[in-house]
Specification:
This protein has about 230 residues and is α/β, with parallel strands linked by helices. It has a single domain, classed as 3-Layer(bba) Sandwich (Glucose Oxidase, domain 1), CATH 3.50.30.40. It is built from 7 helices and 11 strands. α3 links the parallel β3 and β4. α4 runs parallel beside α5. The model has no long low-confidence stretch (mean pLDDT about 95). InterPro entries: RraA/RraA-like (IPR005493), RraA/RraA-like_sf (IPR036704).
Length: about 230
Amino acid sequence: MIEEPKSLRIGPDVGRRPSVEQVAAFQGVPTGFVVDAMFGVGAMCVDISPLDTSNVQVAGPALTAENRPSDILATLGCLRYLKAGDVLIGSAQGWQGCAAAGDRVAGMAKNAGAVAFVTDGPMRDYDGILEVGLPCWCTGLNPGSPFGTGPGQVGTRVMVGGQPVETGDMIVADRDGVVVVPFAKIDDVAARLGAIQDMELELDAEVRKGLVLPDPIAALLDSDKTEVM
């Protein structure tokens, strides 16, 4: 016989956060730069996109909620543990049958200090969410209401958009999508961002000047590594 589960469980790392300096290193950085600094990994799947397509960029520590499909109790439980600057991650285990949150949840999360909400489910109350002003990334819209009965977990490891997310990981999100930087790799990734930005700006300048074919590609085409059929 299975023991009756607790309605909510709070993980031991619910208070883990990167330093102010670590968070600052990712402010204003495009998600593409962050993925490049992690050698091509860390991006959530393309199903998760900004609800409002205006030009928005956020970066902050994750606080995770693991919900059962069609339930949001863990997301609501996170409201007590949110810290200013957090990105609330509301896992719906990919459930698309109802909304993973709406304008009231978004409003309460913003009141608690969240700078964004990310979920692998849809959302509802589009106009209300825009009025609240909390940037949200989700899989689309669904008018169905979720339950709030649990069980669920706050501050534990979740899978969202194909990426593992733990509380304290750095989340960077913009119009291109959402990227997860594991807590243990924050410093290493931040240290590479400057070089990535320099390379990108240099290539941008060359394209504006009329660049058609990058030198490495030209060299490859002219080498014995290319065969003309």
